[in-house]
Design goal:
The complex is a heterodimer. Chain A is built from ten helices and three strands, in the order αααααβββααααα. By secondary structure, chain A is mainly alpha-helical. Classes of the chains: A mainly alpha, B mainly alpha.
Chain lengths: 272, 110
C-alpha cells in the first residue's frame, strides 16, 4: 500500500476512533496489519498518531483545567515502565504472536468501549472558582462543571498503578494507546471524575507513546517516510471526528465501534 | 465525554495550596507545535525525496520529544512550587525512559 493510502487509513480510523471516544490507534494498527504491514512496523505508526493526538488535544484540556498533571506523572511512572518493557520485549516476539496480541487488545477495547459508563462526582456548593486546580504535594484537586466546582481526591493508587502498567505494556507491544484501560481505571477504580480521568489519560498516553517510540527509534523500527503523512491524517481525522461527535448519539457510535473492533479482532486471528 | 454513570459520595474539599500551573504557556505552545507538525507533514508531499525524508524525520522527532518536554517543564514548575515529592516522581519518570533508551541503544530487543 502507498504512503498516501496509509494517510487515508489514518484519517478514517482517527475520525471513527474520535467519534467513539477510543482514539484511532486501536483501529489503525489492526487495519495496517490487515493491509499486509507486519505488526512490528504498524505499532510505531499507531503510537505516533497517539502522541500527535495527545499534543493536539492539550490546549483545549489545559484551558478547561481538567488535566491533573501530578496524577498523570505518578501513573506514568508505572505506564512508561510497562511501555519501555513492552517495546523491548516486542523485539523478541514474532509478528504472528504480535498479531494475536493485537487481536486480544482490539477485543478488550471493544468490551471496554461498549460498556463504559463512568462515575459521577457531584459539585460541592462550598467550593468556588478559587479552588479549581490540582493541589501542591497531593493527588487531589477540583475542576469546574457548569456553575459548580467538583472536588476530588485519588483513591486506591496501588491498584490503579497496576492497571497503568498493563496499559503501558499494551502500548509498547501492540501500538494501541491503552487509553481504554487507563480512563476506566482512573474513573471507576481511583474515583477521579470522568472528565478529569479522560483529560489526564489524554495527557499521559502521549508520554507512554513517547517512551515506547524512543525505544523503537533507536531500534530503527520507525518508517519515517510513512510516518509524517500518517500523523497528518490522524490529526485531521481526529478533528473531524471530534466535530461530528456532537451531531451523533455517543452510545450508538460506541456500540458500532465495539462491533467493528470485534470483527477486526476475529479477522486478525483468522489471518494470523 | 460526559459523566453518565452512578454517583460517588461527595468528596471533601482537598486541603493544601492550589497549584499555580494554568497552562498559560503550554496551551499556546502546543497549538503551535500541532500546526508545525501538520505543516511539516504536508511539506513531505511536495518536496523532493531526500528533503521530504529530512522533514518527515523532523516531524517525527517533534512528536516524540514534545510529551517528554512537557514532563521536563512540569518538573521545573513543581520545583518553583517547592513540591519536592513530585519533582522526584517526574525525574524518576524521565529516568525510566532514559534507561529504556540506553537498553535499546545497547541492542536489547533488536
Amino acid at each position: 500500500m502507498e504512503v498516501v493510502g496509509y494517510a487515508v487509513l489514518a484519517l478514517a480510523t482517527a475520525a471513527i476512533g474520535a467519534l467513539g471516544g477510543l482514539g484511532g490507534a486501536v483501529l489503525l494498527v489492526p487495519a495496517l496489519v490487515l493491509t499486509g504491514m507486519p505488526a512490528s512496523e504498524a505499532a510505531p505508526l499507531g503510537l505516533l498518531t497517539v502522541a500527535a493526538g495527545s499534543i493536539a488535544a492539550g490546549p483545549r484540556q489545559l484551558r478547561e483545567r481538567t488535566v491533573n498533571h501530578r496524577l498523570g506523572v505518578v501513573t506514568e511512572l508505572s505506564a512508561s515502565t510497562g511501555a519501555v518493557g513492552g517495546a523491548l520485549v516486542s523485539g523478541f516476539v514474532s509478528d504472528e504472536a504480535l498479531t494475536y496480541v493485537l487481536a486480544v487488545v482490539a477485543f478488550a477495547a471493544a468490551v471496554a468501549g461498549g460498556r463504559r459508563g463512568g462515575l459521577r462526582n457531584p459539585p460541592d456548593p462550598e467550593c468556588d472558582t478559587g479552588d479549581v486546580g490540582e493541589r501542591v504535594g497531593a493527588l487531589a484537586g477540583a475542576y469546574p462543571l457548569g456553575d459548580g466546582v467538583v472536588p476530588y481526591r485519588v483513591d486506591r493508587l496501588p491498584s490503579g498503578l497496576g492497571f497503568m502498567g498493563l496499559a503501558g505494556f499494551i502500548a509498547g507491544t501492540a501500538g494501541a494507546s491503552g487509553g481504554f484501560i487507563k480512563t476506566p481505571a482512573t474513573s471507576e477504580l481511583m474515583h477521579v471524575p470522568m472528565k478529569v480521568a479522560a483529560s489526564t489519560t489524554t495527557f499521559t498516553i502521549g508520554i507512554t507513546s513517547s517512551a515506547a517510540l524512543v525505544v523503537f527509534a533507536l531500534q530503527g523500527r520507525i518508517d519515517v517516510e510513512a510516518s509524517a503523512l500518517v500523523i497528518v491524517g490522524s490529526l485531521v481525522g481526529g478533528q473531524l471526528g471530534a466535530n461530528l461527535q456532537s451531531a451523533l448519539s455517543p452510545t450508538v457510535i460506541r456500540r458500532l465501534l465495539s462491533a467493528l473492533l470485534v470483527v477486526v479482532s476475529v479477522v486478525l486471528v483468522v489471518r494470523a | 465525554m460526559t459523566d453518565t454513570g452512578s454517583t460517588v459520595p461527595r468528596q471533601p474539599i482537598p486541603g493544601g495550596r492550589v497549584s499555580t500551573i494554568r497552562g498559560r504557556w503550554q496551551a499556546p505552545a502546543l497549538t503551535w507545535v500541532t500546526r508545525g507538525v501538520l505543516a511539516l507533514g504536508l511539506l513531505t508531499v511536495v518536496l523532493p525525496e531526500d528533503a521530504a525524508i529530512a522533514v518527515a524525520t523532523a516531524a517525527v522527532a517533534v512528536v516524540i520529544a514534545v510529551p517528554l518536554v512537557r514532563v521536563l517543564w512540569l518538573v521545573h514548575r513543581w520545583r518553583q512550587e517547592h513540591d519536592r515529592r513530585f519533582v522526584g516522581v517526574g525525574l524518576a519518570l524521565l529516568g525510566v525512559i532514559a534507561a529504556g533508551a540506553a537498553l535499546a541503544a545497547l541492542g536489547v530487543g533488536s
